[in-house]
Amino acid sequence: MTKKTATIAIHNGLNEDSQFGCVVPPIYLSSTYNFVGFDKPREHDYSRRGNPTRDIVQKTIAELEGGVGSVVTSSGMSAIHLICTAFLSPGDVIVAPHDCYGGSYRLFNSQHEKGAYRVIFVDQNNDEALKEALAQQPKIVFIETPSNPLLRITDIEKVSKLAHQQGAIVVADNTFMSPVLQKPLALGADIVVHSCTKYLNGHSDIVAGVVICQCRKQLEDLSWWANNIGVTSGAFDSYLLLRGIRTLIPRIRLAQDNAQALIQYLQTQPLVEKIYYPALEYHIGHHIAKKQQQGFGAMLSFELKGDITLIKTFLSQLTFFTLAESLGGVETLICHPATMTHAGMSEEARKTAGISSSLLRISVGIEDSQDLINDLRNAFDVATKR
After folding, report:
1. Does the reported pTM lie above 0.90?
2. Does the keyword section mention Transferase (predicted)?
3. Which is the CATH superfamily of the domain at 249-385?
């Protein structure tokens, strides 16, 4: 029988224990496994290469994204690094968004400076700039949509077709949307990457990543390299990730509803200069988002009118908005990208990407939306009267 997303998230791994009849799969903490006999290994021999707990969550995420398999890694950054290690050599080119997550930017740029490969940062919505970058015959085209933190939308189907004409592998970072709201493999991408730390886990208590493939040969290559360089996730983190995925859909839906309530409120605030959220009709990527997404998500950013002192005052008055990096948890987080998530980018690079010192990013959680609005209202009132 075919399974819908909600059923996949709940049922993978359930009732598979033949020894005790456990409904929930146990955690296999063993680092090593005995051989049946001389030169006769079992399915698992060492947990860096393979672990039964990790197997279940890898299968679950692959099914959610519509891939043939996945590799769960120690972090989102190790997942991206794994892809680059497996498929890029010195002199090869990767085309990446000019406004990508600061950690991705730092990784690509530092590896470029080291000579591991070449990176071209480009506005992927600028047809001419993208065409020039693709003319360099990249091995990988990396897409991040919606982008972090400005939620710019990239047409996955369009960019994938152009990239494939040059023989490139298309990698899509789907962290902001999750497989509930967007499925890049169905839109033409070859590989999907997530920071599982975020929505897939959803409770801000593990750090993990995942790479999902629709090509079995690429999956085999990535699995080999993951074992080789030792970036696979441990059993306990894999167990917590699987537990988080069980509630992925209700968490996403409630957080998205809350985000839309906050957007309506922020639109009434005179201190708000501009809001970045793809559901807004004036958002430059609104129509593409409607085409390729099944919702608009729970991430939003906005520009404040005022100086750093006003921003500090505003942030200091928030109670239910935690000033912290990361996103996708059940709790609402707010961050100042220029000094937090994107501090690793140079000031010039941030300016090129459009990340100003007045920009704030919110990861909306699943608290009561009216409590969140009241909290914002109080912070705006204090900031206005400072």
Report:
1. yes
2. yes
3. Aspartate Aminotransferase, domain 1 (3.90.1150.10)
